[in-house]
Amino acid sequence: MLQGLFILLLCQLLGELLMMAINAPIPGPVAGMLILLVG
């Protein structure tokens, strides 16, 4: 369970960083969930 929570938070962080880097209008956690879905 702890590993799943860590993966979820890591994907949200990656999404947030990616959206800040490319200045996209998509919220970071949404991009993180897409990263989780694809990966």
UniProtKB/TrEMBL annotation:
Annotated keywords: Hydrolase
Superkingdom of this protein's organism: Bacteria
GO molecular function term, any single one: hydrolase activity
Protein's UniProt keywords contain Hydrolase: yes
Name of this chain's protein: Putative effector of murein hydrolase LrgA
Organism of derivation: Nitrincola nitratireducens
